[in-house]
Protein 1
Amino acid sequence: MVQKLKTLLLSGVTTFIAFCLIKYPDQSLEASIRGLNMWWEIVFPSLLPFFITAELLIGFGFVKFIGVLFEPIMRPLFNVPGSGSFAWAMGMASGYPTGAKISARLREEGQLTQIEAERLVSFTNASSPLFIFGAVSVGFFYDVKLGIVLAASHYIGNALVGVCMRFYGRRAELKVPKSKKPSASIIRAFREMHRTRINDPRPFGKIVGDAVLNSIQTLVMVGGFIILFSVFTKLLYIAGISPIIATLFQYLLQIFMLPVDLALPLFSGLFEITLGANLISQEKSANLLEKIIVVSFILGFNGLSVQAQVASILAPTDIRFAPYFFARILHGIFAAILTALFYTPLYLNRTSFDFKGVPVSNGADEESWLAVLHRLADLGPFITLVALALAGLILLNRIKKI
């Protein structure tokens, strides 16, 4: 019965999208172009170096090296192997879905068990600092200092999710006998790294080519989801469905004493973060604290667009999606609460703090973040086209050798 209902739901949603595409072709094309521009100007060029680097570091055994060194830290805190520190750091630096991509690769390499991989995925997908400071703080709210509050709430909340998820799957692990882990040492870490590289029979050129192709393939999939959800969100609004569903969120906002006018932007943000954050920043009935609390929640929730990307990355593995989805709700709640707590000390009283390396003033700092975004927007399409052409050449060369 459940499968029949699922079939009806999926076919109904697909039919709705097809009908709306026919009825609203101009709006659908506009939304599609918006998603495409976001992908090839910002997402692709900013994530490609991280994806390729991650693939190479895994292939050359460096992740095994840091896994041995960070085992004493990651195991007590998050109950995952030390190699999870690589996924966590790369996920925070480059943004989603890098954490899911690396976690899936580590699972494929056998460096994580299924339970450990599900724990790791739950807290390694975060917004990048560039997105939080550049796009949200400067681009939408025109105040780079807000990035301090949003970033602190987001990343600390993410770590708290990891601590909570360390207890996930404990019963299943009790049934499996644990082998004694040797103590961390640089010598043993180097030996493990060398053994990993030697055990990989692929030549250097093949490793690099696979890294480029796998990264580009994943990013093309990410672009498809961005465009799909951009169109889907637009169609829901045009068809009048978004305002109807948003009324349900009004009651939820009233419980937390937040303006009900934020219901529609919140609903939009649950689908696509960028659109939701932009709408929230433009809402005049809410004060700044109320706005950034809701923005923090949708940043932690990741948005269904990002969650669909993660689900697609995890699909070829045995990593289940449900723990990740639960962790997103938990992260959104933690981030919202921390934003309310950090707002006064980190924003209103910011002059008494000295954040080294973090922009805390307007003017030149805001211009620098905007300059980075504009530079990405200018060079992004060129980088994307060059990368796609390179992938095509690699594939063509391999086809000739067959």
Protein 2
Amino acid sequence: MPRTNDDSWDITQSVGATALGVAAARAAETASDNPLINDPFARVFLDAAGKGMWSVYADPDVTAKLVEMEPGAQSRLQLMVDFMATRTAFFDEFFLGGADAGVRQVVILASGLDARSWRLPWPDGTLVYELDQPKVLEFKESTLREHGAQPIAQLVNIPIDLRQDWPKALQDSGFDPSRPSIWSAEGLVRYLPAQAQDLLFERINSLSAPGSWLASNVPGEGFTDPDKVRAQREDNQRIRATAAKLIDAEITDFDDLWYPEERTPVDAWLAERGWDVTALSFPELMARYGRSIPQGAENSMPPTKFVSAQR
């Protein structure tokens, strides 16, 4: 279903279902022979959610049947697992780098189902604010609580749509804009219209004291190329239709969830406002972690840039 300005979702619907897809890729990487990351809670979320598109990554039997029916799916599935593994490693290292530098105030925008408050070795005194849709945070917290997990950091959940006045909600929950902060906007920007992207970073910039850190993955050059967008959509529709038959369930059309609009380059925008910025393309990030894009999957994902910055 196409997006609207006031749409909402739970964990198995719309944008919420993408969080389960990410968790499935993290679970697959964690269970691999040489994992780049360790996310022991990813599988917990999948088991709690039941069957869905994420089963393509999480259930080896479903994966094998899909590859048998769609031989080209193998490289695409591996690329998605590698993408999420390297993306997770990038943000994990970023968070811990900021913590090692002494920053103890963390804001995770669109926190989804990555349980960083529970799984990263946060220093004593670290306060983490997680913001996301109310039903997403409720699912995550209740699932982990039932599993007996306790957050390592001091966690403050802020159930809010990021298109609303989240800076007010954040400050009402104890956030101190006079202190340095670690900010992340992971897997978020492509699901915002271009204007909402600009507002998001304007708000972050206004709340960031000197010494703050910021990281995000953002659309790269060629993100809106019509030929690439059309080819990716056709491939995704074919694989989605096959997967839906295998799991006998309706599958969200993820291509309807993001906004293929021309955007302000985030790295340049931050640099103009005094941030010290580093940007990596997805192939560069893969190489950084000793991975490479599988043959045949070179054009199967939208161009992505990984931006990290310090003020």
Protein 3
Amino acid sequence: MTTATTSPVLQAQALGPQWPTLDPFLFCAHHDDSYPASDGKMGVQAVEFEGREMGSDFSRKDGWSMYHGDHVPGFPGHPHRGFETVTLVRKGLIDHSDSLGAAARFGRGDVQWVTAGEGIVHSEMFPLLNSDQPNPLELFQIWLNLPAASKMVAPHFTMFWDERIPRLVHTDAQAKRTTVTVIAGALAGADAPLAPPPESWASQDAADVAIWTLHMEPGATWTLPAARGQGTRRMLYFFAGESLQIGNVLADRHAALELVAGQDWQLVNTGSTAVECLLLQGRPLNEPVVKYGPFVMNTQEEIMQALQDYRRTQFGGWPWAEQDPVHGSEPRRFARYPGQAEDEVPGE
């Protein structure tokens, strides 16, 4: 990576299994799994399990992991408190089930946003629907912190369907396109922004939270606008493509790049393949963070209370017959919200 005297990049870090984040973000994982054809029952064929630590397989053997699944890959029922999960699915499908009674099958561009608040238990399973061809899955899971005043709010579940997510499609002077998908925050030229969950830090205008993905054709040029908020911090994850020019900095390897947020910066795809980036930004909460597994609070005492509450109440219990429920063999995407009998089907 080469820089000039005045750099838009404050720091650069390599991308590993978990990507570095900035307050108010806590965690960012990029799962990219090349699952094989299924066994006809939405799971992995037993012959594929050799050499894996089943129940806790993060091996990426043969290009994929079982995670905590023992037949269907994924994450069976587990609790959260004190933050939010935002899940962006680029390929494949995810089956969600939770202690609120909500259920969903989503993917192929959809985004799920869960406010854990005072406590929720959910499962995220990766059903393999194709028995005659591979089942690729790619997603981002992002953890967004909740301010201390909102850590014990009621949990909330919502879906943003791909067809309804705002996008900006910019064509430059060379007829090269940049597409920006806007999950959170506002962007001039895109449709009206989505409404984050009501208790989210992202719902506060002054928080200046943005979650965007960028796709730049080879040779494309686009100007990343300055953040609106005073004190906003911004991380650009360059994760696909050959090289990306940011102002006077050439990024020639994939990296997490903290950018100067208060200025516009011209981005140029200087490679021969498409460039893809994830952008996370927001005004920091500047509050103490104490983590213990799936709980994120402000003090150690609050973590101890979370453990006690979960042991006592199971955060409302688990209304499903299995810890790893999947929702049938049909590829239809849907969401069933707590207390509602009807499914919401995109486009209907």
